[in-house]
Design brief:
It is a single chain. This protein has helices at residues 3-9, 16-24, 37-44, 48-57, 97-101, 107-116, 132-137, and strands at 77-82, 85-90. The protein is mainly α and 138 residues long. It folds into 2 domains: 3-57, no CATH class; 74-137, no CATH class. Strands 1-2 form a two-stranded antiparallel sheet. Helix 3 runs antiparallel to helix 4.
């Protein structure tokens, strides 16, 4: 069954596993099934776009790539103050947002920067992601 027909059938509205299959083109492996748990909760609430987001954001995008993308809604974001900065965090992100919300995001790096960086120093971060450390260093 092609993608358009699968979406039209609305069968996916009852199954997080089916959403995974639409997004990634295959059934989830046993170790990927827990990634669909948040999506199942969204389906029970009738939040279909949220269910797609939970499946997509529950997976590591480096290893499980998809052409699907879903925009954030106000229900998807938590705003927190951290070190004098307001951060917008994706509630579904398990890799970073949950750690920041728990106050446990890379404390070893923050401690290192606090101890070594002084006003007027040049800070170069050779990294491809936007980090809280970059904000603090600035």
């Amino acid at each position: 069954m092609d993608l358009i027909n699968r979406l039209r059938s609305r069968h996916w509205q009852k199954s997080a596993k089916e959403i995974f299959k639409i997004v990634y083109g295959r059934d989830p492996l046993a170790n990927e099934m827990p990634l669909t748990a948040d999506a199942a909760n969204e389906l029970r609430k009738g939040k279909y776009i949220g269910a797609f987001r939970r499946v997509i954001n529950g997976c590591d995008h480096q290893f499980l790539q998809t052409a699907f993308t879903v925009r954030f809604s106000s229900e998807d974001i938590d705003y927190v103050m951290l070190g004098g900065f307001q951060l917008a965090l994706d509630k579904a992100d398990q890799a970073i947002s949950q750690q920041v919300l728990a106050g446990q995001y890379e404390p070893h790096l923050l401690r290192f920067y606090r101890e070594r960086l002084k006003t007027g120093m040049v800070f170069v971060d050779i990294n491809t992601s936007a980090n809280y450390e970059k904000l603090k260093a600035g």
